[in-house]
Design a protein that fits this description.
The protein is an alpha/beta fold. Helices cover about 45% and strands about 20% of the residues. It is globular. The protein binds ligand C2E and calcium ion (3 copies). The site of one calcium ion (CA) has 4 residues, from strand 6.
Length: about 280
């Protein structure tokens, strides 16, 4: 509409302006994606490394655009954050994930599953919906839910009332992409969490001699340990990385080596296979 028209005026030759028009189109398409049933959720197993057992899943949003096909979340989530569409989209993802967890807990009680859901800072600001309501209406125990936040939380305003209600109900928080920002440690002081997700950049560097990969992962695990937090490794792609993490005593991890994100059906299959093994 109006924004789109403005974008079109800036058109032509240079690639940057094409990209910005692209973003304007995507932006308006995104506002309708949820209502049009174009969004879905996939689930990536979080595995107890020693026993190779699924302990949790991370819910990840997917957008199938009618013309462009799959738009990666690294593209559409930032757009949704800019426009505010992340508030209804994020609540919908949380609702789907909680209902799915409830169903899996009924079918696989022995697995004692939990669920991780990525949350944008704006979703926690005052007046932007009540995440605890979503969790409770889905019929799951709030203490089985891990909300994954990033340091962008820093820029959020007045998040404390929702966060304290969530904490009091037993919801856990984990800091995503831990270590990628110079302020990671300072952040922990202001926003205590129960878990750290070790960014996959560090996991990827573990088996290289350069870049201190192993030492950094060891140091992050020591931080987690001394603050009584759990450490979760992300992005495990090779057996060598898995072996190195096991050596360091890392308890939990996820990555393509263990499992990519899966549809509901394939996740259920994986849980069945695990129960029957
Ligand atoms: P993230 O929270 O750090 O999620 C992990 C990303 O790494 C996922 O990408 C996952 O598919 C990918 N991944 C998993 N294992 C491996 C591996 O072994 N190697 C590599 N290279 N990648 C791996 P995805 O699904 O494309 O999501 C990208 C980001 O988008 C997420 O990063 C998260 O920040 C954001 N996101 C996704 N869904 C949501 C959502 O519902 N809400 C919010 N706020 N953010 C979301
Ligand atoms: Ca995450
Ligand atoms: Ca991450
Ligand atoms: Ca990330």
């Amino acid at each position: 509409a109006k924004a789109r028209g403005t974008g079109r005026l800036e058109v032509f030759d240079d690639e940057a302006s094409h990209r910005s028009i692209d973003r304007l189109d995507l932006r308006s398409d995104l506002s309708e994606a949820l209502d049009r049933g174009q969004l879905s959720v996939v689930y990536q197993p979080m595995v107890e490394l020693k026993s190779n057992t699924i302990r949790s899943f991370e819910a990840l949003a997917r957008w199938r655009h009618p013309e462009r096909g799959n738009v990666p979340p690294d593209e559409f989530i930032p757009l949704a954050e800019e426009t505010g569409a992340i508030v209804p989209i994020g609540a919908w993802v949380l609702d789907q994930a909680c209902r799915q967890l409830a169903a899996w807990q009924r079918e696989f009680p022995e697995a004692r599953l939990t669920m991780g859901v990525n949350i944008s800072a704006v979703q926690l600001e005052r007046g932007h919906g009540d995440l605890l309501d979503v969790i409770r209406s889905a019929g799951v125990n709030p203490s089985d839910i891990w909300l994954e936040v990033t340091e962008h939380m820093d820029t959020a305003e007045d998040i404390s009332s929702q966060v304290s209600a969530l904490r009091e109900a037993g919801v856990h928080f984990a800091l995503d992409d831990f270590g990628m920002s110079y302020s990671s440690l300072a952040y922990l002081q202001r926003f205590p969490v129960e878990g750290l997700k070790i960014d996959r950049a560090f996991v990827a560097a573990m088996n290289e001699d350069q870049n201190n990969g192993r030492g950094i992962v060891r140091a992050i695990m020591a931080v987690a340990d001394s603050l009584s937090m759990k450490a979760f490794a992300e992005g495990i792609e090779t057996q060598a990385q898995l072996d190195a993490l096991l050596d360091l005593g890392c308890g939990f991890g996820q990555g393509y080596l263990l499992s990519p994100p899966l549809s509901v059906e394939r996740s259920t299959d994986a849980l069945r296979a695990q129960r029957d093994r």
